[in-house]
Hints:
Layout: H1 4-10, E1 17-20, E2 24-28, E3 36-42, H2 58-73, E4 80-83, E5 99-103
The protein binds adenosine monophosphate and zinc ion.
Amino acid sequence: MDCLFCKIVNGEIPSSKVYEDDKIFAFKDINPQAPVHILIVPRRHIESADEITDENSGVIAAIFEKIPSIAKSAGLTEGYRIITNCGRHGCQSVKHLHFHLLGGAQLGERMA
Ligand code: AMP
Ligand code: ZN
């Protein structure tokens, strides 16, 4: 499968890794939109939030269980925002489910 984030997870394409374990992989966004901008992805390919099922949702829990320590390691002591873009209207550009972890400065109040 020709998937950019599968290739990053597999090490075929280099990334600035922040965290990895057997289920999830986190790396710095190449085009940061905040002082801290980390992407957190399941190792296993899931296309988007719209493809989450009772069979694959364990990895979503794994991601959210790790977010506090990833945020702490990144120095996000004053809070952060987690975003996942889904589909065309959500402006999802990479079709491998990922959560944006944004922070390091006061973020805007508007989300859309
Ligand atoms: P989205 O628009 O929600 O699909 O987010 C995709 C994100 O992937 C964007 O924020 C891009 O800057 C980021 N991105 C694209 N290519 C790379 C890459 N090679 N390494 C790290 N981040 C990337
Ligand atoms: Zn993938």
